[in-house]
């Protein structure tokens, strides 16, 4: 009887795996579930993600950070270390944030710029709004308004980050983040938020138990902050999408309004051997127990999403 019960449980978990995949892909690609049925497949991307001839962000990319809500100095340091570690500060150990960026650059930006020159990410300025000037319930239009308020230069990227008390249109239900742009002005933005209080199972996985499917033990948050460490996963994914497909006409696969991009094409993949519901073989800090696959120049650790390689037609991981 015990053997039959265990077999039944295994079958039930296997039946639930496709549901977990569906949820992860819907959060990474918001309109996918609204627009058409999802066809589950072992292949990460059913069609090759390709270049459509549009502009990417390149050269010197000034980055502006908008802190909407209350963030602690350490939470801000986690984000700033990630941005500065992309190109501005040399890596002190491997695998590094710089290596993740280099993989992205070689697979995408280097193939879309005429001069083929280097691209540098430069932190320009930070703006704090701990008084919640637009309230604690934001529409996507207001997120764009906050980005515009940073007064970005042409070719710039604004990171709009909302704290755990802020509810944003569609957050948790159909998205964990989003990127957009002012095509006329030539700048882009990426938004995500701290999901610790609202939906850790959706937008802070794998550092929290998923809302659906097998309830395996969560991975340890690399910096000890489930909300912000989970936010960094979404931020890295939206950052990659914003620089490689800022105006929805560069690198993507599928429909423009429901496109798979550099990282969303590899949703839920963080290390080798990954499968739906399992992040893959990642590194574990022996002291803190935090799981990671990249280290910043300032010493912070991150679990960064895999990058889709259009040439190899597969997800590239650093570990």
UniProtKB/TrEMBL annotation:
Keywords attached to this Swiss-Prot or TrEMBL record, sorted alphabetically, are: Apoplast, Secreted, Signal
Its protein name is Protein EXORDIUM
Location in the cell reads:
Secreted, Extracellular space, Apoplast
The signal peptide stretch is 1-33
Q: Which family does it belong to?
A: Belongs to the EXORDIUM family.
Pfam families according to UniProt? Phi_1 (PF04674)
Q: Which InterPro entries match?
A: EXORDIUM-like
Top-level taxon of origin = Eukaryota
What cellular-component terms does GO give this entry?
Answer: apoplast
> Which residues span the membrane?
none
């Amino acid at each position: 009887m015990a053997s039959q019960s265990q077999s039944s449980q295994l079958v039930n978990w296997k039946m639930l795996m496709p549901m977990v995949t569906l949820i992860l892909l819907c959060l990474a690609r918001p309109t996918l579930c609204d627009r058409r049925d999802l066809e589950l497949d072992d292949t990460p991307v059913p069609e090759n993600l390709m270049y459509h001839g549009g502009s990417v962000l390149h050269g010197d990319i000034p980055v502006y950070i908008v802190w909407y809500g209350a963030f602690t100095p350490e939470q801000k340091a986690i984000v700033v270390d990630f941005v500065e570690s992309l190109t501005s500060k040399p890596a002190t150990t491997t695998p590094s944030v710089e290596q993740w960026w280099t993989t992205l650059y070689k697979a995408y930006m280097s193939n879309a710029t005429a001069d083929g020159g280097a691209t540098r990410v430069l932190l320009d300025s930070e703006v704090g709004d701990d008084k919640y000037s637009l309230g604690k319930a934001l529409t996507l239009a207001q997120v764009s308004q906050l980005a515009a308020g940073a007064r970005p230069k042409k070719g710039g990227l604004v990171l709009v980050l909302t704290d755990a008390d802020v509810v944003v249109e569609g957050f948790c239900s159909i998205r964990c983040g989003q990127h957009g742009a002012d095509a006329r002005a030539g700048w882009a933005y990426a938004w995500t938020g701290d999901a610790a209080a609202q939906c850790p199972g959706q937008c802070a996985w794998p550092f929290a138990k998923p809302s659906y499917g097998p309830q395996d033990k969560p991975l340890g948050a690399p910096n000890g902050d489930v909300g912000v460490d989970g936010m960094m996963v979404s931020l890295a994914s939206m950052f990659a999408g914003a620089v490689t497909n800022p105006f929805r006409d560069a690198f993507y696969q599928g429909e423009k309004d429901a496109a798979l991009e550099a990282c969303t094409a590899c949703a839920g993949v963080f290390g080798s051997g990954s499968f739906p519901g399992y992040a893959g073989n990642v590194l574990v800090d022996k002291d803190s127990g935090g799981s990671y696959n990249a280290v910043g120049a300032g010493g912070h650790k991150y679990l960064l999403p895999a990058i889709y390689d259009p040439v190899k037609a597969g997800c590239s991981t650093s570990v």
